[in-house]
Design goal:
Blueprint lengths: L3 E12 L6 E12 L3 E5 L6 H8 L7 E6 L2 E2 L5 H11 E5 L10 H11 L4 H14 L15 H13 L5 E5 L7 H16 L3 E5 L3 H4 L4 E6 L2 E7 H9 L2
Parallel strand pairs: 3-8, 3-9, 6-7, 7-8
Antiparallel strand pairs: 1-2, 1-4, 4-5, 9-10
Helix pairs in contact: 3-4, 3-5, 4-5, 5-6
The structure holds adenosine-5'-diphosphate (ADP) and magnesium ion.
Length: 238
């Protein structure tokens, strides 16, 4: 089995037509391997969120192909696509996106229950995922009773529960203070090291340093890729 979890091939995304058309992504090629965390950086409007939405099958590119664990998304029926999203993908957003009327554990187990897991198996997997982010004691808490950092850790647990192998995080630390943000990134890094693949959109170089590779977007084009050794010298100006 190939270790390439995500492959974007010649991905272009255009919004609108004619004079008002916006080219959000142009000819983007990107491979992400198992155990690899790729940071995506770039100015506001450069296409970072569009890239994640396309990678996660939430948006269909104008041209190009998205391949997740060998499956071409363009060849999947809507039902297969929904199933693949539930089973293989985890999203983490800046604003946590937890459901306020569900406990931390219920938020984490929801994707499993939607996928037909028995309640007991779902709870077991949910508890494991919460324990992995250090929140085993907060299973019964509601989002409002948790700090921002704790809520984001619940969101990470939800993103990886049941062995999801591709984690897509869009500025996950944007609403957190720097210490909490770094803690959340360490959790993300740990999950990737445990065998997932991840994309982290961030505008903070300090956070991108958690990644193995940094990809820069400008006006929808990928302008540079830096392996970690190179990235560190770039970020420190050495
Ligand atoms: N649904 C949409 N309709 C029209 N234009 C959009 C839409 N979503 C994003 N865009 C445009 O596409 C470009 C890239 O946006 P986005 O991917 O959100 O960038 P980033 O996340 O880097 O800030 C921007 O010019 C934005 O205005
Ligand atoms: Mg964005």
């Amino acid at each position: 089995m190939s270790d390439t979890v995500l492959r974007l091939i010649g991905v272009t995304q255009q919004y609108g037509t004619g004079a008002t058309a916006v080219s959000a992504l142009s000819g983007v090629d990107l491979d992400v391997q198992r155990g690899e965390l790729v940071a995506v950086m770039g100015p506001s409007g450069s296409g970072k969120s569009t890239l994640l939405a396309i990678a996660g099958g939430l948006a269909i590119p104008t041209t190009g192909e998205v391949v997740v664990e060998g499956a071409y998304l363009s060849e999947q029926s809507p039902r297969e696509l929904a199933r693949l999203r539930r089973r293989s993908l985890g999203f983490v957003f800046q604003d946590f996106n937890l459901i306020p009327t569900l406990t931390a554990l219920e938020n984490v187990t929801l994707p499993l229950e939607l996928d037909g897991f028995r309640a007991r198996a779902a709870r077991r997997a949910g508890r494991d995922a919460l324990a992995a982010v250090g929140l085993e004691g907060k299973a019964s808490s509601y989002p409002d009773d948790l700090s921002g950092g704790q809520q984001q850790r619940v969101a990470i647990a939800r993103a990886v529960v049941g062995g999801r192998r591709l984690i897509l995080a869009d500025e996950p630390t944007g609403a957190l203070d720097s210490v909490t943000g770094e803690f959340v990134l360490k959790m993300l890094r740990a999950r990737v090291d445990a065998g997932a693949a991840g994309i982290l959109v961030t505008h903070e170089a300090r956070h991108a340093a958690f990644a193995d590779r940094i990809v820069f977007l400008r006006d929808g084009r990928m302008v540079d890729q830096t392996r970690r050794a190179g990235a560190e010298s770039l970020l420190t100006g050495a």
